[in-house]
Amino acid sequence: MRIGTIGAGTIAQALARHAIRHGHEVVLSNSRGPASLSSLVADLGPLAAAGTPAQAAAADLVVLAVGWPRIPDAVAGLPPLDGTVVIDATNQFASPPPEPRIADLGDLTGSEYVASLLPGARVVKAFNALYAQYIAPDPRHEAGRQVLFLAGDDAGAKDTVKRLTSQFGFAPVDLGPLREGGRLIQLSGPLSALHVLKQD
């Protein structure tokens, strides 16, 4: 699979390393341009490349991992995403820690808002509920596999994400649609930052 990232921070890099370790190609992008990613790409190896957000969005699967206030600019001008699976790893921090403030979206969940900016994309909420230090290492532990909560409105898209993340070693748990499931794992939701191991 060819995986693109919109954003190249800690979470995007962690997922890129998992993907490359399992033979997938990765195209990373950020707002500063491909040249700013040259050292990261060199460190990741031959399966990694730097590109523009549009090039990353042309991949088979796209990971959106940018700060909440930057999302509109990050997705503006992307090519049509008709049918593309997009993993939304964002959290609706209007301002980040140490003085966090949660964006007021009214009745919308964070991923419903993101999906509204990506017409045609098949959005799956995942990885936002885990701290990066639990995403980057091998998710297989002596006591079990790191649970990965996910939500989405498209069953096929969720199956794709389940297969990929299971390959990485996570134990995906489907919470249902973006509205109900997304609300459980977004900021202030009962499953946000809940780190659980599934016994096999």
TrEMBL record:
Superkingdom to which the source organism belongs: Bacteria
UniProtKB keywords: Oxidoreductase
Pfam families in the cross-refs: F420_oxidored
Domain Pyrroline-5-carboxylate reductase catalytic N-terminal: 2-91
InterPro entries according to UniProt: NAD(P)-bd_dom_sf, P5C_Rdtase_cat_N, STEAP_metalloreductase
A molecular function (GO) term: oxidoreductase activity
PANTHER family the record matches: DUDULIN-RELATED, REDUCTASE
Name of the protein described by the UniProt record: NAD(P)-binding domain-containing protein
Protein source organism: Streptomyces griseoaurantiacus
